[in-house]
């Protein structure tokens, strides 16, 4: 089965005439984005400039500021994601808000030729860069769709990764519910998202900065509680600056 065929097989409602013209499956057509806008940062992701510098400059630099000087590097983030997801050869991994596909390509290596790594994003410029950077023949497919409501069948993927995006969603709690829906029982979830620091002056500043940029600043126990409410178990959390890395198992 080809990568495109594998991708179509995951969908709840495969289109009668799949649009792979740009190298990814486009389920949004001419729509600029999926769902309501949340602020400046999200809008920048749809421009042509940010995707050009995203993987090499934008994401590492912004991450360093938010994670703090002792936070993990981008290479270490990749390793953290792989560890939290517990990927195995032949598995299916969904990389939500995949951007230019750096993590998706790594997941493709981990699941191997019999598996599939799916990069999902709503930004056409981001996906164009992701497709261009992915070697031909890789077990990697890209999907332009709503990240909050991935259009996949229930219990169809082994792992869901959502790094550096949940806090930019207009409906983050709906997204977590969606992740629980598409994961197989025992499947793994990995998140990198915001976490307000416990020191009150810093909390106030971080909340204000999040509001100004359209990003939600989660309280330090908020994401854990939301996952518990959705039946996730084996939850582990690691904080780094104003961020948190979260791993959990679906039931």
From TrEMBL:
Q: What are the residue boundaries of the Methyltransferase type domain, all occurrences included?
A: 94-190
The question of whether Transferase is a record keyword is answered with: yes
What keywords is this UniProt entry annotated with? Methyltransferase, Transferase
UniProt entry tagged with the keyword Methyltransferase: yes
A GO term for molecular function: S-adenosylmethionine-dependent methyltransferase activity
- InterPro entries xrefs: Methyltransf_11, SAM-dependent_MTases_sf
**Annotated Gene3D superfamilies:** Vaccinia Virus protein VP39 (3.40.50.150)
Q: Which GO terms describe its biological process?
A: methylation
Which Pfam families does the UniProt record give? Methyltransf_11
Q: Where is the signal peptide?
A: none
Protein name per the record: Methyltransferase domain-containing protein
Q: Which organism is it from?
A: Actinokineospora alba
Upper taxonomic classification of the species? Bacteria, Bacillati, Actinomycetota, Actinomycetes, Pseudonocardiales
